[in-house]
Amino acid sequence: MRRNDLNIALLAGGVGGARAARAIAAGIRPENLTVIANVGDDEEIYGLHISPDIDSIVYTLAGLEGPAGWGRKGDTFEAMDALTELGVDSTFRLGDRDLALNLHRTLRLREGEMLSTVTASIAKELGIETVILPATNDRVPTMVEIESGEISFQDYFVLRQAQPDIKALRFSGAEQASPAPGVRAAIESSDIVVIAPSNPPLSIWPILAIGGMAESLEAAETVVAISPLVGGKPVKGPTDRVMTNLGFEVSHAGVAACYEGLLSPMIVDANPPEADPPAGLEAIVADTMMNTPETGTAFGEWFATLW
Amino acid sequence: MRRNDLNIALLAGGVGGARAARAIAAGIRPENLTVIANVGDDEEIYGLHISPDIDSIVYTLAGLEGPAGWGRKGDTFEAMDALTELGVDSTFRLGDRDLALNLHRTLRLREGEMLSTVTASIAKELGIETVILPATNDRVPTMVEIESGEISFQDYFVLRQAQPDIKALRFSGAEQASPAPGVRAAIESSDIVVIAPSNPPLSIWPILAIGGMAESLEAAETVVAISPLVGGKPVKGPTDRVMTNLGFEVSHAGVAACYEGLLSPMIVDANPPEADPPAGLEAIVADTMMNTPETGTAFGEWFATLW
Fold first, then answer.
1. Per-residue pLDDT averaged across A22-32, rounded?
2. Cα B131 from Cα B31, distance rounded (Å)
3. Whole-angstrom Cα distance, residue B279 to residue A16?
4. What is the number of structural domains in chain B?
């Protein structure tokens, strides 16, 4: 059963964000969901403007996502093999079909279009009804400080496979950046703002750091976070290590602390059922696994009945 | 038998140019051949700098060429299919591996490298010993005037499949352009300059139109053209139609007229054996088919014994 009357804005990044978008879109009218995507991971690779978080959301909502949650299902890697043959470091693997999307986006951006316009057009071509907005059209690259100095996000995440300890994060240009057209309106006019079960520091903080975003969230009626921890661990990715590095407890309370002052209720997984509910914050216990379309639909339909 | 002491500069464009490069490289030491490639066909497509003639030469010399003489053997077209899915007109088909080469070139050009440097590096990575030089590092797009107005070369050649009648050709920017580093030296210091059996107006004229090229060719001791006509017709492509459109007879004499004043001897095919040898020009009769590596080697070895 869908709730046709509910409007939701979702702050999302990474695979957790894409899966939450799919889940929530299954519980309401898809076009009543606006996904506000992290663009701190965006980078120039092979001369292409890559937007990994937007693309995970696009591919997942189009049913085209790769098995690991990024890239395209069944994609081939002929172009990467050819780059290797030409002596190019192709550690950052883009499938051939994925490459085409990146090429198309890059060309349109070079022609002067905004990232939000290009994203909307790609989503439309792929039959997606949910609104997908980059958090900003400006460049706000997340810079990761590790022992040896500051590196780019993709250097940290892909080339070094998220192995180095993080000493600090810098959301370069974020304060001066403006939310993309429609972002503030979606946050301020939705019935609920949801923070996806993404990596809080890596995927959500870069969104929150954008100029004016904090004010918009304060104006929102209800902001609810879905904790990315299940059984005390992240479903996917280095969330636990990153949180520990940055001085947060790996717990629902630690997640809540990452969003200090923002949340009304919080959704926490039933496993373990009563592990550290965040102090002073209503915790709604649920089965938060949404890694498949089926578990996602179950979560989304349940979630929509809460409000 | 190779002639180890002979240095040749080859003016080349199109598939005929690539096959002539392979043939002649088989008759001498490959590194003693300098191929000077037409770049009038270069264009920006999908935001990529394509250099079709350079790439035909590169792929053919690396033994990677597609069956029609362009693109890569066994290449896949996943990226093109994905572009189509995104609503992009992908009539200009670039295979996935070919796309990677174009992406690599484009990035390096954007970073400020010269086309000649990038080309040399690509050739080296693919194990090519022959020197491949773009005729110029400048932009000299061939513009094609047809009934409806002036269009780009790729619009004429690929999108309209070389069907429209040509009223005139314009080698935009050619006069102001400079030959790429090494081009003049190769022409002036080689024992022979060969004009490949390419389309004279479309593939060779854009090279000849570059500033200083005429002077270099006048300084060359021997300039020999291989006629692209076999049995009175071009082996491949619209050479006959283009020559007719521009007022040239489709004959060896017509080809010689396209290079008026430049040639010493001319190589003409034995089929038909005595068809219209160009007036006042020594015609050396041979089997000029070089469409396979085997026929190419036969031609190249014979050719090298001539001098």
1. 98
2. 6
3. 77
4. 1
CA distance A178 to A224: 23
Range of the domain at B275: 8-305
Which residues are registered as beta bridge partners of A72?
A: A65
From the list B47, B82, B100, the residue facing A107 with the nearest CB is: B47
Which run of H or of E encompasses A151? strand A149-152
Interface touch A86/B75, C-beta < 8 Å: no
Is the pLDDT score of A291 beyond 90?
yes
B200 pLDDT band, cuts 50/70/90, is very high
Cis before B201 (ω within 30): no
Residue pointed to by tokens 């053919």? B60
CB contacts, 8 Å: A95 with chain B = 78
Q: SS3 letters for A236-288?
A: CCCHHHHHHHCCCCCCHHHHHHHCCCCCCCEEEECCCCCCCCCCCCCEEEECC
CA-based nearest residue to A233, from A278, A298, A289? A289
**Could you tell me if residue B2 is inside a domain?**
no
| DSSP three-state, residue A61 | helix
Q: pLDDT tens across B24-40, in order?
A: 999 999 999 999 999 99
pLDDT at residue B181 above 90? yes
Question: In this complex, do B86 and A75 lie within 8 Å of one another by their Cβ atoms?
Answer: no
Q: Report percent pLDDT > 90 for chain B.
A: 90
**Predicted local distance difference test score (pLDDT) of residue B273:** 63
Q: Do B78 and A75 touch (CB under 8 A)?
A: yes
Contact B122 A86 (CB under 8 A): yes
This complex has an ipTM of 0.93
Contact call for residues B103 and A47 (beta carbons, < 8 A): yes
Q: Shortest Cα distance from B285 to chain A (angstroms)? A: 40
Interface probe for B, chosen from A44, A86, A113, A121 (most Cβ of B below 10 Å), is A86
Residue A273: the pLDDT is 63
| B147-to-B151, B170, B217 alpha-carbon distances in Å | 10, 15, 34
How far is residue B166's CA from residue A125's CA, in Å, rounded to a whole number? Answer: 37
A71 belongs to a structural domain: yes
| CATH number of the domain where residue A198 is located | 3.40.50.10680
Q: Is residue A276 part of a domain?
A: yes
CA B246, B247, B248, B249 torsion-angle sign = positive
Q: How confident is the model at residue A275 (pLDDT cuts 50, 70, 90)?
A: low
Give how far Cα A139 sits from Cα of A174, A193, B74, B141, Å.
8, 24, 39, 34
Residue with tokens 């198309």: A104
A149 Cα to chain B: minimum distance (Å): 25
pTM (two decimals): 0.94
- A47, closest residue in chain B (CA to CA): B107
CB contact under 8 A, B46 and A85: no
Residue A287 has pLDDT above 90, yes or no: yes
Whether A217 is in a domain gets the answer yes
